[in-house]
Amino acid sequence: MKRQRIPLLVALCLLLATPAIGQLAPPLGHPQEMLLTLRGLDRTARVLLVTAHPDDEDSGLLVKLRHGEGVETALLSLTRGEGGQNEIGTELFHALGVLRSRELESAARYTGVRQFFSRAFEFGYSFSVEETNAFWGPEPVLRDIVRVIRLFQPDVVLTLPYGGAGGGQHHQASAQLAMDAFHLAGTTRWPELGPPHQAARLFAQIWGPEAPASLCEIEVGDYDPLLGNSPEAFGEDARQQHKCQGMARPVAPLARRLSRWEWVLSANADDPPRAVPDFFAGLDEPLLENSLGETPFGANLRQAANQVRVATRPGTPATVLPPLLELWDLLEAAGARTDLPASAPSRLATLRTRAAAVMAYATGFRLDARTEARLNAMGRPFSVENAGPEHLVVELQVDRVGPGPARRTAVQAPDLRLAPGEFHRLDLMVNVASTTPTTAAQPVPESPTPTPGEDVDAYLGPDWSAFRVVPWVTVAGRRVQFPECKVQVQEIRADFPARRWSDPQLVPEPSIRAEHARVAAPVGPGESLSAFVSFRVSSLEGGPVRIRLASEPGWVAVPNETTLVTMAGGAELSVAFQVQGPVGEIPADPVTVRAIASLPSGQVSEQGYRVVDYHHIRPG
User: Fold this and answer.
1) Tens digits of residue pLDDT in 384-428
2) Strand, coil or helix: what is 27?
3) Which residues fall within 8 angstroms of residue 179, CB to CB, at 6 or more apart?
4) Residue 225, preceding bond cis, omega within 30 degrees?
5) DSSP per-residue letters across 350-379
6) Rounded distance, CA 161 to CA 207, Å?
7) Number of other CB atoms surrounding residue 275 within 10 Å
8) Residue 122 in contact with residue 82, Cβ under 8 Å?
């Protein structure tokens, strides 16, 4: 099996000034991000928002929950928005789905949500819930919602409006499916989707003037001194990332708005829907509270978190380390207990992740990871550069996080012992087999029917970063996983000199893709079916690429094969073939035509990719 060696350049340092993990330019500054993270050191509550498309989310509310209150939030967009319009380019259908889901990721840099998708394909404007369900299954999509609920384990589920005739009915269909999943996730049905989890409450958003008896109104316009703005205004910055949907718009200073919701479902008969001031009013916070009041662990955690907050000095972050280590020990001890509820491990993991992020800041740890090329062929070399308190022992692990069975590459770097001011640079090599699946986003099937043996998480992604570096750091004898650093490529724009970033991807070499997924073939009496099919071909290394067509019996291609001379770097060329069928025969089912591209070296590919590139969807 042919393998590619990917050089990884790793650099680490101990800084005495404000540190950073990763080389992105997030909307939050690092001291600001740390102070906001402190709000969640003693919060275990979780909220899942289920929507139909990218841009349906209530960004101001998500900002208030995550950054303002420390609530762990997730967003499940059932579709990637393939059927929408595009106000900034030519991408439509699957390419538009890539653009819109990448815009959603850009918005998440503001809202802080964890992002999920389902296998639902947006087929265009929907006029009824019944029509939507006919296209979506709907059982395969319902299974995906159940899977996300069991995986994320929310206390509260939020949906779009579940009734009414206004707007595309994808919105109402998504809400009704989420309501079904709310109950099903807590049962033993579909055990392959994970252990049962029953959320406590479900709220549906109100878009009109209605005022139901179980109304919940949340002000998202209050000024937040750490954000330097209101959650609503900060959320509008997130919303304008949906540029292809025309969502950039003027915002009033310190924008105010009531986010309005109807409490629809409750899992507890003693906790019926009613008017409440917020989603969690009267609801016990997992691990921290129960029917008797505050748990011993909750009291200890809140006391420890308060001590961390009191000790915080943004100008001298190391002052927070002693109480932070005490909080860490408390979380580790809780993780060893066997008497906690089933949801405890995931919630303790979230608390450890937050504590580790603050610890990375407090210790002055910096880590950068870079590679040289944005597009990398399977079976060819690849390089990464990596850059990052007091005498820390650092272990590095490189993981591949794209789709496919070989998700974990696990390259182990030698342990490093860092002193203040030290800088280390490592060159690592990642071996990538030529048979490794591409890391590029895969189109969602227009028919949502699962295939036998399919991964239940197959369509919950995509994860746009193909590689990441995971640092394990020993701090005062404690081995802590610091925040991961995504491997990225630094580029300079040629048209307007500026530094920018992109995600490295593994792509097919050579690349060949159909320009149109379906082609009509008109035919008259006594004639044979005939159609022109065209393909886009490219090669990263450049040179001759042989293209051959394979069709079903009785069908011929003219010409059967041809050779194109490609330019290095992946620039695409177009090639067309005429495909003819048997005279007088009209097939009952669509005819499949396959294109095979090969290099002089013998490397063969039947896959292709298309680059969707806009400045606002780049990672920084």
Assistant:
1) 444 444 445 666 666 655 444 334 444 556 666 766 666 667 666
2) coil
3) 159, 162, 202, 264, 265
4) no
5) HHHHHHHHHHHHHHTEEEEEEES-SEEETT
6) 7
7) 14
8) yes
